[in-house]
Amino acid sequence: MNIRWPMLVCARLVVTASMPFAALNATAEPRLDAFSAAFEGRKAIALIDARAEAVATLRRSSSYAIYTLKATIRWTVISRSFELCSVVRFDGDRLVPIAYGYVDQGDPRRDVRTDFDWSSGKAVTQLGNGEVSKIEIAWPAWDPVSFQLGVMAAARSRRAGEIETHTVIERGVRKTYRVVYEDPATAVVAGSSRPVVAIRGEKEGGGGIRLLLDPTHHYRPVRIGIDDVDLDRVADRATPAALAADEVPSCPPPRRP
After folding, report:
1. What does the pLDDT look like over 142-171, one tens digit per residue?
2. CA atoms of 231 and 186, how far apart (whole Å)
């Protein structure tokens, strides 16, 4: 099985900006509404259809949010499951990443944990194979999942045609994206036509992500595109319970093989 596609689907289900990113919007805190939704996508691998299923869930309080993505890739008789997690703190109008986790249920050597230590200005990444790396950071800086949250929050105040450059820390490596906010459009998603805000993230060296957000439903994602794969929202789930006022959510640490 081609392992790269499942890794891309999960790692990007889904930063340093070239323009001031503090103005995510004009409100006292970034607008991110709690939600949970199911997504599906397909891709041919070696002429055999592979199917991806994912559930995205955003829970929050007035101080923190935790965004999780749980996905399963099925290819003939093979299946692999993954879980991604990002915790962010609200600091006025800023989203501040705290921690990121990636858990591969089939191979703990691929697990990832990144902690953002803003007091020292470093992001510390620990991989499941025991490797540890440190990268200097200055706000804003993002992991693959909180990057998606940042784009969702920023979309409310961005105009069509605006372009930003972002850097996302992926498995301890700094990656650069050119993000383009496109013209409003109408898209057919899961058999239903709806207005969308389209955002394209072109990754340096090739590949990238595409997001279609629904402006009539709090800019929630209705399509997540990774390279040549689209994951469409197929069902909304019950709104998850809010975090307790004093709760600081956490992502799982990497396991040892």
Report:
1. 998 998 888 888 888 898 899 998 888 999
2. 17
Show the beta-strand stretches assigned E in the chain: 35-45, 48-60, 64-75, 78-91, 94-104, 112-117, 122-127, 132-136, 163-170, 173-181, 185-189, 192-203, 208-214, 220-226, 229-236
Q: Is the peptide bond preceding residue 20 cis, with omega within 30 degrees of 0?
A: no
Q: SS3 for 153?
A: helix
Residue type at 182 in one-letter notation: E
pLDDT tens digits along 22-42: 444 334 456 788 999 999 988
- Structural domains in the chain, sorted by start: 4-236 (2.50.20)
Which pair of structure tokens corresponds to residue 22? 């503090």
